[in-house]
Design brief:
five-stranded parallel β-sheet, 2 domains, Rossmann fold, about 200 residues, about 50% helix, alpha/beta, single chain, globular, 7 strands, two-stranded antiparallel sheet
Length: about 200
Amino acid sequence: MIKAIVFDIGGVLIRTEDQTGRQMLEEKYQLPSGGADDLVFNSPPAVESTVGLVEREMIWQHVAEQLSLTPHELKAFKVAFWGGDQIDRKLLEHLESLKKTHITALLSNAWMNTRQYLADQFQIIEGTTVDYILISSELGTAKPDKKVYHILAETLQCNFDQILFVDDFIENIQAAQELGIKTIHYQPGMDLIRQIKSMLNQD
């Protein structure tokens, strides 16, 4: 029986619905397609911040150094980079509604200070919006490391097969499945709420 519903954040609950800003940055700074994402998310400081080793400001310092940006230009870069991101309010409301019958949680590979960012920007707060928020930079390990899922199960006080986990990265889904966690691999255009209801009805 499913006792807990767990969502990834980036790519599931918060998605880049408009790529215009990032494409503009790639043209302006002569980056290849996908180069803006790669510069921000796959840089050494970003990887280190995801497991709590460096502050998120170091990620932007790296971007500024790579593109020779002034502080003003870096600020404009951030605005354009994040401009297409939107939170799926309908999905969040559905997750909040599930708190009446299930344990709810967010499990995200995310940089340091993400907890405060979620509260400030989206009013997502542990104990209010959802029961638990687990962030890789606070845990010191990131998906798809199975250690993350052991921490998750211990936090939720659930067996693996009592957890339904939603993520957009197949490697994170596969790692969870290997432990017996029930999963939904989110893909663009999917009616996720219907999928969740279907799995809960089958349980």
